[in-house]
Structure prediction request, 566 residues.
Amino acid sequence: MKIKLQLSQIITNALLIANIQADEIVISDASKPEFGDYQFNGMMKLAKELKQNPREIAVMVCSHIDITGMVAKVEVAGPGFINIWLNDAWLATQANAILEDKRVGVGYVEQPQKVVVDYSGPNMAKQMHVGHLRSSIIGDTLATLLEFLGDEVIRQNHIGDWGTQFGMLIAYLEEQNTDGNTQELKDLEQFYKDAKVRFDESEAFANKAREYVVKIQGGDEHCLMLWQSFINASLGHCEEVYEKLNVNLTRNDVRAESFYNDQLAQVIETLKSKGISTTSNGAECVFIDGAEIPIVVQKSDGGFLYATTDLAALNFRDKVLNADRICYVVDARQAQHFKQVFSIAKQADMVGAEVSLEHIGFGTMMDKSGKPFKTRDGGTVKLVELLDEAVVRAKETIKDRDVHSNEELDAVAKAIGIGAVKYADLSISRESNYIFSWDKMLSFEGNTALYMQYAYARIQSILRKHDAQIFGDIVIGDELEHRLALMLLKFEDTLTKAAIEATPHTITGYLYDLVTLFMKFYEQNPILKGGIEEEVKMSRLQLAKLTASVIAKGLELLGIKVVDKI
Ligand code: ARG
Prediction:
């Protein structure tokens, strides 16, 4: 339900009657219940334009607001705000209309876009690290959300599969294969270390590694075959993580750096011919206004760089994929890089002016002491092990609750453990650094996945206890019911905001408010106790059921599962 849009139409109509033109009406949520449900703060700006007293115009506009349907009451507040209360009967009708709706009242965007979401992007020559974990989780949520709202989403996994390190890795792979020992690739971290040891200890090996770099670049079949099998194995490890994380990335979404190899020379040609790049000390550089250091697009030895590949990818995404919007879910530390390539791509017309290019940056994952997240000996944390530990800890957290059989316990622990890791990541504003804490993420209290999953399970238990058909309508009888119904109807506005701003924490914040409100409602408005009128009981059961549906849908968009019992 697009509540804000409807309210802005009502205000626009009132302004029209008052003969006031306004370009855009922005409605905000009221900051406190005493201020109503919503607030219109635009009167100050309008008053300035009209050179009139804001409070006086507000009073006049209020007198023209239609209070026969959606709106129950309006009031002028402060120097010229308009506080708005919605009508109980209207809220109840809207809530009743979505009781059986699979989309729980969420419609589609009016103008669907083609959106490329670039996320995960691990480097094949290294272990996938926590930064890629964040990108995978945030990117996947964004992709799922946009798809749900009706956009056409093209997922792109821009894996790093090209560069000098591969010479060493495939030379080592070949050496291992002659021994018939491909088991080595089972532990990639160890494999890199061993390859590096060989590289450092043997001159012959190091030479071979260097020779192989040139050979892969030249298209040598044998080397390319080794390279491909290495990439396959490395990608297999990433897929194991995606699978555990419930992240929707497949081989079809991989468009690796190497894919753009044969387009890189053209990128340089275009930049040169448009006079955007200049040759400096043999290297091809783009000087950007205001920046001291130029961005190098081709080295003096002819080699291309990360930025060159990104320019080719931007061109491809615009010209071939026809994207309207391109979102890069990448570490905030790459902000400068994206600012530069976006500006060059637009200048060079590799991307049309109307295409929205967005770097969806995120902060670093820290440990409790505020240092970047590492293993005790300073190594990279193995993601698969981290996720397995989450499940073990989740099992520990719930095992004494005694509501599950052994088989159930495994599935529930998985939903809770993986949910905890994902939710912890999604629930903080993405630009912030984030402190990884098992205790916090596996808590039943606070803004955690478990709090939401527990609320869902609790509602299921109420419905099980009731053990009969639920019929009849939602009827709003008090303030808490009013707020709960309104909160449920705000789901679409919440998702729309999260999609535009690419902020999953808008969704988690909403879920937290919803569940907190539900708990209050449930405490004060008993459902199954004796002595409650049948009609009231049904109405409350319907509200509870709808709350569960919204929680489940919200968590589903975050890639988190609900369970019936906790
Ligand atoms: N492989 C890169 C990294 O690990 C991320 C790729 C992001 N996508 C892009 N088009 N540059 O830092």
